[in-house]
Every structure is written in C-alpha cells, then in structure tokens.
Design a protein that fits this description.
CATH architecture of the largest domain in chain B: 3-Layer(aba) Sandwich
CATH topology of chain A: Rossmann fold
CATH class of chain A: Alpha Beta
Oligomer: heterodimer
Order of helices and strands of chain B: HEHEHEHEHEHEEHEHHEHH
Strand order of the largest sheet of chain B: 7-6-5-8-9
Number of domains of chain A: 1
Distance between the termini of chain B: 10 Å
Number of strands of chain A: 8
Number of helices of chain B: 11
Shape of chain B: globular
Radius of gyration of chain B: 19 Å
Strand content of chain B: 5-15%
Helix content of chain A: 25-40%
Structural class of chain B: alpha/beta
Strand order of the largest sheet of chain A: 3-2-4-5-6
Largest sheet of chain A: 5 strands, parallel
Chain lengths: 177, 305
C-alpha cells in the first residue's frame, strides 16, 4: 500500500483546481459544481468553498447519482441509490462534474447521460482528484489534482474526512485487498 | 429479494431501504426527461386477471420510466376465456421473453403459485383480499414524505378491513415502521380474528377520530360483498364516512389518504377529497416511484446472486 497524496496535498490540489476553474471560466459566475456519488460529492463541496474563498461569492454545488445510467448494471452487485440534488436549473450554466478517481471514463459517460435528462448546460467540464489512466472511452478531464500512473491490477482509494475520518489517497494491489 | 409478494416478513430496514430508493425515483420523475436507462432491454409483463386501471397503468409507467418494455394481458380478451389454464397462460407469455411478471388475481396466493412455475421475479399487484404490497409502500412513502417518519404516528384505517388487501398490507407496513394503527369499522367489516393484526379494533369512529395523525379511508367494495353487510350506504356514511363535519374535528395537521377509486359522498365527502390535506393524488404519483424502486431492486444489478 503506497500513499500518493496526504491531506495537505489534497488541500493544495483543490486550491489549485479552484484557481484553474476561475482562470478558464473568467470567474465563478454561472458555475454549478456537481459531485458524482459518492466521493465526488464532498469533493465538490470543498471545491465550492475554495471558489467562494477566492471570489467571495458562493458557488452552487450539488450531487449526481449515476447508478441508473451504468452500462454494466448486469455485472455489478446491487447498490443503494444515492441522492441526485441539482441546485436549480442547469440550462445555460457551466456544469463542472467532480469525481474522486478518473479511470475508464464509463462513470463520466453515464454522468453525461444523466445530465442530458436533467437539463442542457451550455458547457460541461470535468474535475478529478486523481487521474489513473486506462481510459476506455474518449473522455479527458479539464482539471486534475494528480496524475497517478497505475496498473489495472491496482486499486486507487480516495479517503475523505467526511466519510472515512481522514484525508488521503492510497494505491493498493488487488492481492492486498 | 427474488420476488415481491408480501409485506409480511419485511423489516423496518427493508421497507425504509425501498422507500429511500423511491425518494430518488421521485426526483427522477420530476426531471425534464423523467426516464432513466436502468432496465433497458428488460421486458415486464403486467398480468391482470382482475380488472384494474390505476395499478396496471402505474406499473407500466414505472417500467417505462426505467426504460423496460412492457407487455400486458387482460383476461377478457385472452385464451383464458377459451379454457386455457393459468399455468399454460403464464408459461406461454414467459416463452415470449419476459424478465418479470406483475400479477393481480382474485384468488389469494395466485402470485406465489406463479412464482413456483417461472424462474423470474414475480410482483404481487393484489391477490384476493390478501396482500397489495406496493400499495402499502406508496402509502408509507406518502406518510413519510409528509411527517418525515411513521414512528409514533397514530394511523386510523377506516372501513371495510375484512375484505381489504390494502388494509392487510398497510397494517403490516405501518406497524413495522413504528406507527400505532387502529382499525375502525362496524363489526361485520372488521377481520374475524382481530388479534392476528398488529392493530387495535374500534367500532365507534367518533370516539377515536381526534387522535389520528393519518386517517386512511377504505373504499366501500360493493364487488367484494362490502355493500351487503350494512343496511344502506347512507347509514354507512352517517357512521363511518369522512364527512366535512368529521374532517373539521381532525387534528389540524392530520392528513387523509384513500387508495382509490373513491366513492365520493359515501366513504369520503367530495370537499374532503379535494382538500389540500387529502393527499390522494400524491399517493397516485408516489405509486409510480415505489414500483420503480421494486422493479429496479428485482431487475437492476447482478442477475445471478
């Protein structure tokens, strides 16, 4: 088990992403952050606070559950649905999807489908705390906390104070888990 | 969970888990495009051997909102009227390629028999005077949305409890979720053996009316013999109808539910039915969401557990 980010690294990555979002979008007006269930949700909220800290105005943040949009529903164990809570209409907004680990890209594909049923944002961008590679679909992130080269046999776990009691990112090989 | 046949045996955790999922489907149904691809490629057959409009349409809407295909069956136009047995009918429809069957039948236990014949999920949409489990879920969801919980609520179920599958399923669900349930009816419409129900039995509605947080009004079921056991409909209304006068004596925060179809002016006054505290159309809306939750639980996710 190797730690690739600690709490301080995560804080700095979120601050940097917040600055990149503001630079790319020329401010935080019309931005809606949507965290993908489950660990994208607290990350989205942290990013909203970071943006508010820099700009001084609050940024809308919500959650998106993509369980009903997966293309592998038949192959995975049943899980409870998470909440989808979109703060107001997203038409004409810039939606930034927030996820903890970007891997095959299938989760993001599902999130884009879910988003299309909810509204028609003017733009959609993607922020991921960790990009571990191995994309199976033509999807790329706009903002990345850390690029972490991995093998498919490894597992990347993001741990968050809100859900796990501590912050950190670790890589485990499948045999250890 | 392989089938959804009865409320009996489900824990508060099981019920709340389904209601939690239903809350998410309520959100889905409020989206501009109220449809998700979760059950794409699955086929749900609705097999109603007894007439129904709302439950059948509600299941079909639920299946379609999950992107499943639906096939429906009505006995009047089917080979049943040519003498085909129930088993042959079921196996024939299954052979066309179904993934789940929603069954309503006038005979108690029919969905259990069908579940023995086919190796796919069976959902009970009402069997005889026995069970109507998705109705209990939608009623529980409506109450939970309004009060936040069922724990500690006083719920009065008024009317023909003896012939009511809704009452049986509701009493089990409400009491499992922590509500205090009272059955109110003339002796002839109370269950023969009231002790087997987790509910108190009362014959005088006016004595207990003011205690209730929820008044659940059952339909006078003429087709199940409900009308023959009391002298006249107007006498029933006098003693058990939720009239404007009785509605005025309820707790100010109390709500009124009815499973439909309503006999306005008999068990419920028309003005009461249209009052904002009568959540009858919310029940209908929630019916779609709870049926989505059950279908998704049975058909979504790994097929071989």
């Amino acid at each position: 088990m190797a730690q690739v980010m600690d709490g301080g690294d995560m804080d700095r990555a979120i601050q940097r992403i917040a600055h990149e979002i503001l630079e790319k979008n020329r401010g935080s007006e019309d931005i809606v952050l949507l965290g993908i269930q489950t660990r994208g949700v607290p990350l989205g909220e942290r990013l909203a606070l970071a943006l508010e800290g820099i700009e001084g105005t609050p940024v809308a943040a919500g959650s998106l559950d993509i369980g009903l949009y997966r293309d592998d529903l038949d192959q995975r164990p049943k899980t409870e649905l998470g909440a989808t809570n979109v703060p107001g209409p997203i038409g004409e907004k810039t939606v930034i999807l927030v996820d903890d680990v970007l891997y095959t890209g299938r989760t993001i594909r599902a999130a884009l489908d879910a988003l299309a049923d909810i509204g028609r944002p003017s733009r959609v961008q993607l922020a991921a705390l960790v990009d571990r590679g191995h994309r199976e679909l033509p999807i790329r992130p706009d903002y990345v906390g850390k690029n972490v080269p991995t093998s498919r046999r490894e597992r990347v776990s993001v741990r968050l104070v809100e859900m796990d009691g501590e912050d950190g990112v670790v890589i485990e090989s499948r045999d250890e888990t | 969970m392989n089938h959804f046949l009865t409320i009996e045996g489900l824990t508060a955790g099981d019920l709340n888990g389904l209601l939690d999922d239903a809350d998410e489907f309520v959100e889905v149904l409020h989206r501009p495009i109220p449809k998700v691809p979760a059950l794409r490629g699955k086929t749900v057959a609705t097999m109603f051997f007894e007439p129904s409009t709302r439950t059948k349409m509600s299941f079909e809407k639920a299946a379609k909102a999950l992107s499943a295909d639906t096939m429906s069956f009505s006995p009047g136009t089917s080979s049943l009227s040519k003498g085909e047995s129930l088993k042959d009918t079921v196996l024939t429809i299954k052979a066309m390629g179904t993934d789940a069957m929603v069954v309503r039948h006038k005979a108690t236990g029919a969905p259990w028999r069908i579940a023995e014949w086919i190796d796919q999920p069976v959902l009970n949409a009402g069997d005889g005077a026995h069970q109507h489990p998705t109705q209990a879920l939608l009623d529980s969801l409506t109450i939970r949305q309004h009060f936040g919980t069922l724990k500690g609520l006083k719920i009065g179920i008024v009317g023909d409890i003896r012939h009511s599958r809704v009452a049986r399923s509701d009493i089990q669900a409400f009491s499992t979720l922590g509500a205090d349930v009272t059955m109110v009816a003339p002796r002839t419409l109370l269950p023969v053996d009231t002790e087997v129900f987790d509910a108190t039995a009362k014959e005088n509605l006016d004595e207990v009316l003011a205690d209730f947080d929820v008044v659940y009004v059952l339909r006078v079921q003429a087709e199940r013999g409900g009308a023959s056991v009391f002298p006249s409909l107007s006498e029933y209304t006098d003693r058990y109808g939720i009239t404007r006068e009785r509605f005025a004596r309820l707790k100010p925060e109390a709500i009124v539910l009815h499973p439909g179809p309503m006999n306005r002016g008999v068990e419920i006054d028309g003005a009461v039915a249209d009052d904002p505290r009568a959540l009858i159309l919310d029940q209908v809306f929630n019916g779609v969401a709870v049926r989505m939750a059950v279908l998704f639980r049975l058909l979504g996710g790994e097929s071989n557990e």
